[in-house]
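As noted in the main text, all predictions were made from sequence alone. Below is one such record, for Taurine dioxygenase.
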Amino acid sequence: MSSFTTRPLQDNLPFGLRIGGLTLGQLQHKAVRDDIDALFVKHGMIVFEDVEQTDEMQLAISSCFGPLKEHPVKGVSRVDSNRMPGVIEIRSQRGRGVVEVDGRQVSHWLPWHFDHCYNDELNRAGVLRSVERVEEGGITGFLDGVALYEAFPARLRDRIERAQIVYRLETQFDQLKFGRPEQYRMIEPKPMPAGFAEQVAAMPRAIHPAVWTRSTGEKVLHVSPYMAQGILGNETPEGDALLEEVCQEINRLGTLCSYHHKWRPADMVIWDNLRMLHCVSGNNPEEERLMYRTTISGDYRLGRWETAPGAAMAADAMV
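Prediction:
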């Protein structure tokens, strides 16, 4: 029944898979969906090539991996919730959210991170599709936390192994505290949705382990430089120096053992948010880029709030 094809994501990478020949009709069969989910557990991310670029196909692919989850931030732009529940749009607006990184001005640049680090509950995965592409840039990078743990310098890994990292929802680029590129400055802030500041003010900080162990036995190094505030119980100059060293090592290894996806018209990509980090290269500030992302439910149950969340934040998270 499973007539789709598979091949490695890229030579010399220990993670990732490409699937081709998948049709909407095949996805109606539970056995096919189960096969694809098993491949995802093993490989951590899948690039679906030459698939139908419709809302229906994106939802069908997403259904292989679990129920959809609403985004925890109310102000994030949604696609029609009646037609595509749980689907958000990620738009790079012309001339907005511009940073200069290593002498190059780009919009919608994002450092290495995992999604929802600012929340007590993560999501299992995200399925991403490019709706409006740019000619240059707009590349999404992926870095496997299992491979990252193995590649990390032992002296540094041992110091961070049992650490808990504190995160806060901060999206403006001048708030990046750890892992900044050597040449980095904000040019134009990102536009913020109505009510965003109020929700952020009501949210406590979230805490997640720097390293965790999968049910299959592998250890995952899972630190998001984006939105990190410090090491729990060690928010001191010494603790901050350690976390900065960890984040800069992630940046260094991110140039050596990662995968960077240049979007084509017929691609969809899923990555394991409990295992992978991802980043975005940014694009010409005069060009616009639009992505649709579904968010797959399924937490690892290791995150928590630093303090009890406020009533306003809890109400927003249910919307």
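The chain has one domain: 5-317. Residues 237-254 form the longest helix (18 residues). These features were considered when defining construct boundaries for the mutagenesis experiments described in Section 2.9.
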